[in-house]
Amino acid sequence: MSSRPVFSKSEYAYSEIKRRVLADELQAGTTVNQEVLAAELSMSTTPVREALKRLATEGLVRLDTHRNARITELTASEARSLYEVRHRLDPLAVELAAQRRSAEDIGRITGTLETLEPLTAGDGVEAFAAHRAFHRALYTASANPLLVEVLEGLWDKADRYRQLGLRVRSAEPIDVERVREEHAALATAVIDGQAQEAAEAMTRHVASSLGRRALEALEAEA
Q1: Is the Cβ–Cβ distance between 158 and 58 less than 8 Å?
Q2: What is the CA radius of gyration of the chain?
């Protein structure tokens, strides 16, 4: 018997449309028609409409009064807002994580770090998912559900700017090694209970992040 997960049509539509947005196959500013999407996905418009409504709540699309959806634009204003929130809340999350992490948290952090590689141009959704899983393990260890909810809610928006950061400038070997060292330092500080070191490591990580690179590129265009 197959062990593959079974998705509802609306869940499949949501996952596939979201993948296309994050992979820039549906580019920012593009208008897409629900009926066209439904035909491409071999389903009726009802699950597609449900999927688009869900994506709208995440800020990835905007629905109009017709049967269309517009992929939200990437802007310097939103990039700066995301960066400002991350610059404050990510360090707080790992500081709390270093104080509160459990044995289960440590296992998750260690396990996700082992499968994590720095993001590079051409990476698919799987690489971004692994990146998210590592950071989620750190956030979850904070034992602050509200903080985790806020950071999780921003992640999909932030991934689009990470993609832009990679398109602006491909990662060089020195960047890849730096990010690998930053991830290892974050994991070590949290696992060892070094709260201040964890917060400082995350502050450096955010300051040199792909989101920051995207912000600088968008501000330069303005």
Answers
A1: no
A2: 18
Residues 6+ apart with CB under 8 A from 46: 10
167 is written with which tokens? Answer: 């398109």
Helix (H) or strand (E) holding 11: helix 9-22
What DSSP string describes 15-50? Answer: HHHHHHHHTTSS-TT-EEEHHHHHHHTTS-HHHHHH
Distance between CA 133 and CA 115 in Å, rounded?
10
Which tokens sit at 173?
């070997």
50, 10 Cβ separation under 8 angstroms: yes
In order along its 222 residues, the chain shows pLDDT tens digits of 334 454 689 999 998 998 888 878 898 899 999 999 999 999 999 999 999 999 998 888 999 877 789 999 999 999 999 999 999 999 999 999 999 999 999 999 999 999 998 888 777 778 888 999 999 999 999 999 999 999 998 888 898 899 889 888 776 788 889 999 999 999 999 999 999 999 999 999 999 999 999 999 999 987
- Please tell me the pTM assigned to this model: 0.85
Q: How far from 204 is each of 31, 88, 105, CA to CA, in Å?
A: 37, 12, 23
